[in-house]
Write a structure and sequence with these properties.
This protein is an alpha+beta fold. It has helices spanning about 10-15, 220-230, 250-255, 275-280, 300-310, 330-335, 355, 360-390; strands spanning about 5-10, 25-30, 45-50, 65-70, 90-95, 105-115, 140, 145, 150-155, 155-165, 175-180, 185-195, 205-210, 215-220, 235, 240-245, 260-265, 270, 285, 295-300, 315, 320-325, 340, 345-350. Strand 5 and strand 6 (about 105-115) form a beta hairpin. The longest helix has about 35 residues, at about 360-390. The radius of gyration is 46 Å and the shape is flat. The termini are far apart.
């Protein structure tokens, strides 16, 4: 795919079939000894895919997907002012089908190509390319792994990655393929399949489960349903992932004929309201689920959503917003007589003694009462030491005297006021 002297031909036309079989597609370039030849002695490249292979996703194993061939023939160089006689880049377009998947893998595999001049000896060839004894080798290469156009099937994204060439009995895919002048060189092309989960938008009450499931699963349980609806005879309805009524319709009249007929919308006996009636009042309303009083409330689905936030949240108001319904009585009934409600967290707790101080707070007070006086004494001792040091060094004045020699007073030294005992006093 280079736009330079390119001719796409079928391998059978060029008669290049060997034990490897015919190329699926070829590309030829350059001018050989005779312009009348369609293919030979032009240079070119071809690719033959394989079938019946198994690629295991994310295995880290490279799998052969085809054979790349280079027909390295001597071609004439371009005349001055003419375009190059050979390409510098090609694109290998690979399509791989799989009966297990709904789409095909399609990858445009970019290749850089260096067509070297044929010099007098191999020692004069580019040492970074030359591998054989015949001048001069050519080279195909690519800069990085080439991922295909990925696609998603059943929440899994599939990507085909071409990992490189393997030739000369090697076992490691390489990013370079060096070919000998005047020969047909072939290298196997290897690839891997990489997959990862794509998280879909799960429905109400569903959670995403990663690989190998890679899908949404219902998070409700029968216990959840009965807890949210305060023991109403409910169970999970798997197709809809919602709480459905499992109350026996015949139990209403059989238990008490005066209580009324069974109402599937409320999962109770004797309620005359229907969900249709409630939705006329408010689109978010439905019949209260389970027992009397028979009234219109927020949709049961909203009760489950609120309960997932915390046990003590229920929908309220015309917009059915989740609100805390915990009270002291609810906490006592749920956990025990010593529990009280914490409105800030919509939870229940046991108040500690002494205005609710926790054991940790009480322990902190006890420790502080013991360490406080000791810490104060330590601080006072440090301050006293600093003051003593400053006075001793003369930084600040203090009660620290020196002997005064009489001669230092000059004339004043003759006064009887400055005689003994000052004359002989020592440092105080």
């Amino acid at each position: 795919d280079n736009g330079v002297n390119q001719t796409f031909v079928d391998d059978f036309t060029c008669s290049t079939a060997t034990s490897f079989g015919a190329d699926d597609n070829e590309q030829r370039w350059g001018l050989g000894a005779t312009d009348n030849f369609i293919c030979f002695p032009k240079s070119g490249a071809g690719f033959q895919g394989v079938s019946g292979i198994t690629l295991q996703a994310n295995s880290g194993n490279n799998t052969r997907i085809g054979t790349f061939s280079h027909y390295n023939n001597a071609i004439a160089g371009a005349r001055p002012g003419e375009p190059p006689s050979s390409p510098t880049a090609l694109r290998l377009l690979i399509t791989m089908t799989s009966p297990q998947l709904s789409q095909n893998f399609v990858t445009a595999f970019p290749l850089s190509f260096i067509e070297t001049p044929n010099l007098a000896s191999s020692s004069a060839c580019d040492p970074s390319i030359q591998r054989t004894d015949k001048p001069c080798d050519d080279r195909f290469s690519f800069d990085a792994f080439s991922p295909s156009e990925s696609f998603v099937s059943d929440n899994v994204r599939y990507t085909l990655i071409v990992t490189g060439f393997i030739s000369d009995n090697s076992t490691t895919p390489l990013r370079q393929f060096v070919t000998k002048e005047g020969t047909v060189s072939r290298a196997s092309v290897y690839a891997q399949i990489v997959t990862y989960c794509v998280e879909p938008e799960c429905g109400a009450n569903e959670v995403f489960v990663p690989a190998p499931t890679c899908g949404c699963e219902c998070a409700l349980t029968n216990k959840t349903c009965q807890t949210v609806f305060h023991g109403v005879e409910t169970a999970v309805d798997d197709p809809t992932c919602s709480c459905g009524c499992i109350k026996d319709p015949n139990s209403c009249n059989a238990t008490n004929p005066d209580i009324g007929e069974f109402n599937a919308d409320s999962c109770s006996c004797g309620c005359n309201l229907t969900n249709f009636d409630c939705k006329k009042e408010n689109p978010l309303y439905s019949v209260k689920f389970g027992g009397l009083p028979c009234k219109c409330v927020c949709n049961p689905q909203k009760y489950i959503e609120c309960a997932s936030q915390n046990r003590f949240f229920e929908p309220t108001g015309e917009k059915c917003l989740c609100a805390c319904v915990a009270t002291d009585e609810v906490c006592k009934e749920t956990y025990g007589k010593n529990y009280r409600v914490n409105k800030d967290k919509c939870s229940c707790f046991v108040p500690g003694p002494y205005t609710g101080l926790t054991d940790g707070q009480i322990a902190g007070i006890v420790v502080a009462s013991v360490l406080g006086p000791l810490l104060l004494l330590l601080i006072m001792a440090i301050i006293a030491g600093v003051v003593f040091y400053l006075i001793w060094t003369g930084v600040i004045p203090g009660v620290w005297g020196y002997k005064i020699e009489q001669g230092a007073f000059g004339a004043g030294g003759n006064s009887s006021l400055y005689q003994s005992p000052w004359q002989s006093n020592s440092n105080v």
